[in-house]
Amino acid sequence: MLTQGKAPENTDSLDARVQRGWIDLQRGFAQRSSLGRQIVITASGHGIPLEAPSAVIGAVHELVADIRTHP
Q1: Closest Cα partner for 56 from 71, 39, 69, 68?
Q2: In degrees rounded to 5, what are phi and psi of residue 2?
């Protein structure tokens, strides 16, 4: 699971607290699978494919490699 992680300017703001909650929620979703994991993309906000395309490409490559080695 790729999760946005670009920190808001004010780390005490409501936005920052919501973001921390979102990251925790997504971590919980990832942990529901024995193969699940979360990658927090600190260089990206909501638009991960547009803001950090290399992170998406890297995650897809890892997934394909895992499937090939553990069918």
Answers
A1: 39
A2: -95, 130
